[in-house]
Specification:
Radius of gyration: 44 Å
Mean pLDDT: 86
Largest sheet: 9 strands, mixed
Number of strands: 26
Low-confidence stretches: 1-54
Distance between the termini: 119 Å
Structural class: mainly beta
Shape: elongated
CATH class of the largest domain: Mainly Beta
CATH architecture of the largest domain: Sandwich
Number of helices: 2
Helix content: under 10%
Strand content: 25-35%
Length: 452
């Protein structure tokens, strides 16, 4: 285009010469241009033309369009396989502040999952897909709709710094692997009842042809993601569940289920108010883009009827408790005595005239030094419901527990002893002396005298 414009300018100058000489007495008789003037013009034109033509623009050695690999090494050779971490074309190593990784060059981006590669941004060519741009030596500038990126040059994977590999265009980068297909998955049977705030380990098994059948243990692959979730009982769409990450069960051996791997997660039980819940697993073979949902039946897709069952209970409230009998005892060391305690739990111990057992309710008998203000320091042992108990007139709505105490050493005598009850599986305790109406007081604890 520049050459055509120059030729037009020259042609316009020649026409101006012609127009300026017409109609003058000094030349030819018919207003034409004299032979001498024409000769002078033609002689002058060739001399001016070369001076008016600019120098040709320099050629970009990295320029490529249809065959990007044809210009590999055009910008100072290859970056090579030993580029320092976080440098241009080197691995961007994750740290506490940036889980994906970071780069020393603020104009670079960390491309890739887990450990990626630092790829500088660049100024693209207006005319070709590949150019030198302003890329650091060892790479070329590739233009995309969303911008332009410098990729390190390579001929084979050996020319790239791990974890990058060489693609068909002669560029090093962390290339996405094809997604895995989930062939089968199954939640291992779960029918669990426990207190809110407690936890339960949940397991599921996964089958992917060519992956989970490589060995009898866990066959890890970064494309596999596993999660455990829970939601309202009967939920048809498990994507609405609350999901938490799961990980491979490293103790797994697939002798019992050949070709599959096992994953697990510790699920913290949600509020009792929403109980019961359905529980399921889900697996992804593409890093979480899509999910396969898994109930206990691996043959027919997800169905709420085959989900795990989770019943969450609220803690019981200890209404009152007391050391019942004996309130004092004297005996020889190593002898035994049966000790009884009673407890009232509204909505439980008043269900019948006998003992109304509940896994949340725990009873213990303890003893310690005489006058101990803090009974939590006592030596405690398990107590169990008294099988002969029926409500008596004085303690309607109470249940009775008992434990056989082996008397401790006489050297520590006298001792205090007491009962304690928990309505939340042992997370907290209510301590019981002989007076159910007041808080624990050493003065009203049981009195134990041990003789040699």
């Amino acid at each position: 285009m520049r050459t055509n414009w120059i030729m037009l300018a020259i042609a316009g100058a020649m026409l101006g010469v012609f127009a300026g000489c017409g109609g003058d007495d000094g030349g030819g008789s018919d207003g034409g241009v004299s032979d001498a003037a024409m000769d002078a013009t033609m002689d002058a034109t060739p001399d001016a033309t070369p001076d008016a033509t600019p120098d040709a623009a320099p050629t970009d050695p990295c320029s490529a369009e249809a065959d990007p690999a044809s210009t590999v090494g055009c910008n100072g050779g290859l970056a090579g396989p030993s580029v320092a971490a976080n440098a241009d074309y080197g691995p961007c190593v994750p740290d506490a502040g940036n889980p994906q990784g970071s780069c020393d060059n603020p104009a670079a981006v960390c491309s890739g999952e887990n450990v990626g590669v630092c790829l500088p941004t660049c100024t693209p060519s207006d005319t070709t897909y590949v150019s030198t741009g302003n890329c650091p030596a060892g790479g070329r500038c590739f233009s995309f709709d969303g911008g332009a990126i410098c990729y390190g040059d390579c001929n084979t994977d050996a020319d790239c710094t791990a974890p990058a590999t060489c693609d068909g265009e002669g560029s090093c980068w962390v290339q996405a692997e094809p997604p895995l297909t989930i062939d089968v998955c199954a939640l291992q049977a779960l029918d669990h009842t426990a207190l809110e705030g407690s936890s339960v380990d949940v397991y599921a098994r996964l089958g992917i042809t060519g992956v989970t059948d490589r060995s009898s243990g866990i066959d890890a692959d970064t494309r596999i993601m596993a999660e455990v979730g829970y939601g309202a009982d009967g939920t048809a769409d498990p994507s609405t569940f609350t999901w938490t990450p799961a990980s491979a069960n490293l103790a797994w051996d697939d002798a019992a289920d050949a070709g599959r791997d096992e994953y697990m997660s510790t699920l913290s039980l949600p509020a009792a108010a929403g109980s019961p819940y359905d529980v399921a697993f889900r697996f992804s073979g593409d890093g979480g883009t899509t999910w396969t949902y898994c109930d206990s039946d691996s043959t027919d897709g997800y169905a709420a009827a085959d989900a795990g069952n989770l019943v969450v209970q609220a803690p019981l409230t200890i209404g009152a408790c007391k050391l019942q009998w004996p309130t004092s005892h004297t005996g020889a060391e190593a002898s035994t005595v049966d000790v009884f305690g009673r407890v009232n739990v509204p909505g439980l111990t008043d269900l019948s005239i006998g003992n109304d057992a509940d896994g949340r309710l725990i009873a213990e008998l303890g003893h310690g030094a005489d006058g101990t203000a803090d009974p939590s320091t006592f030596t405690w042992q398990a107590a169990a419901p008294n099988p002969g108990w029926t409500d008596d007139a004085a303690d309607v709505g109470f249940d009775e527990y008992m434990s056989t105490l082996t008397l401790p050493a006489a050297a520590g005598s006298p001792y205090d002893y007491a009962f304690r009850f928990s309505g939340d599986g042992g997370a907290s305790w209510t301590y019981c002396d002989t007076d159910p109406a007041t808080a624990y007081d050493a003065a009203t604890a049981g009195d134990l005298i041990v003789t040699p």
